[in-house]
User: What shape does this take?
Amino acid sequence: MSKYVKNLIVQDIARRLEGVQDALLVNVIGMDANASVALRRKLRERNIRLLVVKTSMAKRATEGTPLGAAFDGVEGPVAMAWGDEDFISLTKAIVEIAKNEAEFPGFATRGGVMDGEHLTPERVQEISKWPNREEQLSILSGQILSPGSQISGALLGPGGALASQIEQKAEEEPAS
Assistant: This one.
């Protein structure tokens, strides 16, 4: 392949990855065409993009960007995955798919990059257990609302008990 063609490919990779800050590297070697099509369909449903790249060209395309750290120590062809709602959701989806060895043989995480930091496959596994954006917002709203509900319960509890006692006394005494 001529140097001119390689430069065009590097420019195309850089264009596709423009604006991408975090991504995962996955292995797709060993998958047949049917499994590859099924994998891409499954990823597309979750708005996850997949790009198979030659490592040397991807290194050149991501040089000077936050994605450059993803290729530290990586050799051979890899696929880059990015997208979904947030990076945690992306890792959860990729790790879940990688567990299904029967449907997607050979598919596995090979690392990635988050906030400019290189991730190992083990670190990707750890990150997949973190709460995603939606879960974090749920936890946060629960923590924000908790003190208010405790105060409400403290204020309404004695009043409700008093009202109940008055109602019981009213039912016990005969009407005069």
